[in-house]
Amino acid sequence: MFIAILAMLATGKYLDRTHRHGAPVLVGDVRGITAPNFELATLDGQRVKLSDYRGKAVLLNFWATWCGPCKVEMPWFVDLQKKYGNDGLVILGIAMDDSETPKIAQFASEMGVNYPVLLGTDKVSEAYGNVELLPTSFYIDREGKIVGKGEGLLGRNEIEQNVQKALASPVAGMNKAQASPTQAKGVKVPAIAQ
Questions:
Q1: What is the pLDDT of residue 20?
Q2: Mean pLDDT, the chain, whole residue set
Q3: C-alpha distance across the termini of the chain, in Å
Q4: CA distances from 23 to 60, 102, 103, 149 (A)
Q5: Could you confirm whether 140 is annotated as catalytic?
Q6: In the chain, where the domains are located
Q7: At the top level of CATH, which class does the domain 29-184 belong to?
Q8: 69 in active site
Q9: Which of 40, 64, 67, 90 is catalytic?
Q10: Active-site choice (26, 59, 64, 70)
């Protein structure tokens, strides 16, 4: 009886955690799951939805100005945006700071960020599995499916391989050469062991 009660309590806590705001919360292996849509403000006050980027490969990066490993990754992201932007990559940086917007904007400028920075919310963090470890990145393919996730500081090569994996997926109704100029150029996209 005692074990049954503990099991019910554990199940209740899990269901409570995974169903806040009525949206699925990403926990565990998230590959193949459609990335939760959201709408967030940019540093200049515009509103951006993840769904605005359907047809593009998205690297969704949760970060903060005080996060040391985030500062290591950001120049890599700048380079990856330059290298793969014409192939359809969009990097979206979600700032999870409590800082004021001007401070975040100044930090992003000093880091040379060349991709949109969005102001994160608890609701978006919850939708993506209650993001607590920074940096955390999600790699989303052209159809909006998650193809990879990285928590903490990953190596640059691993990040680039995940980007290539996201770029490799065709958009529904397009062949791979149309959807992925990287593949059309003969760039081999390596398999990633997960």
A1: 44
A2: 81
A3: 39
A4: 18, 31, 31, 19
A5: no
A6: 29-184
A7: alpha beta
A8: no
A9: 67
A10: 70
